[in-house]
Amino acid sequence: MSSFSKAAALAAMFPFVLAATPDTCANDSSVLSCSGTSTNTCCINSPGGLFQQVQFWDTDPATGPTDSWTIHGLWPNNCDGTYSESCDKSRAYTDITTLLQNAGQTDTLSYMQTYWLSDDESDEKFWEHEWGTHGTCISTLDPSCYTDYTTGAEAVDFFVKVVSLFQGLPTYTWLANAGITPSDSQTYSLSDMQSALESAFGAPVILLCQDTNVVYEIYYAYNVQGSVQDGTFVPTSNVGTTSNCPATVQYPTK
Fold it and tell me: Cα(229)–Cα(244) distance, rounded to whole angstroms?
């Protein structure tokens, strides 16, 4: 099963129950974001049409399971390496936990409490930051893009989508399948790690390092056919982000 199919199947496990329905985008479902300027921004993500799903490998302090990367976020890149941020401060919701609980998304919340963790603030503050800074800049999540809109429905859609995308991107497993596992003594070729992940994902990825050569973050990129809520995410190359890692890297244990 492809990574898209896995993500779609996993997304179906998280039913959305708020009384809000995204616009129907049948006529725009084949248009790929970043393919041109669109005025139909409820159905085609614009200007932020390059979506970067970013993951952490935190080891000091360690966060999340020892056999999984964790979620950083989903960022709408303006297709040219630039970003819009904090696009609607009136929708910078707080208490994401209660928002998800009230929407019946307890499974999504539980997953986030395991795989979407901060290493320097509360998880709740981290989620609030990711939504307020990045989620509010996703054009298809604008309240005007819903019928029977209920406050917070678009934020719930955001968190459900980020979780489902992450579940279709098992970075640890893809690397382990290539014989690349965390080690406090062994080093790895950066090109080997990138090749293993590109082969599994279907497009080039970007690995970032800290402390010169310690791998700690990865960027996957997508264009989207249709809306973020129910469109098709198509793997593509990152724009505006390059690796800072040397040719030989460390991938330490948690």
Answer: 32
Structure tokens at 85: 């941020």
User: What is the model's pLDDT at position 26?
Assistant: 62
- Active site annotation includes 129: no
Catalytic residue among 85, 124, 129, 130: 130
pLDDT, tens digit (0-9, with 9 covering 90-100), for 29-55: 678 999 976 678 998 999 999 999 999
- 160 within 8 A of 11, measured Cβ to Cβ: yes
Question: In this structure, what DSSP letter does residue 24 have?
Answer: P
Distance linking the first and last C-alpha atoms of the chain:
29
Q: What is the chain's Cα-based Rg?
A: 18
CA 145 to chain centre: 21
Superfamily, domain 3-170+216-243:
Ribonuclease T2-like (3.90.730.10)
Q: Are 165 and 3 in contact (CB under 8 A)?
A: no
Please tell me the pTM assigned to this model.
0.90
Helices (H) and strands (E) in the chain, counts: 7, 9
Sign of the torsion angle spanned by Cα atoms 69, 72, 73, 75: negative
Catalytic residue among 85, 128, 134, 154: 134
Yes or no: say if 79 and 50 are a contact pair by the CB < 8 Å rule.
yes
Distance CA 254, CA 252 (A): 7
Q: For the chain, which residues make up each domain, given as ranges?
A: 3-170+216-243
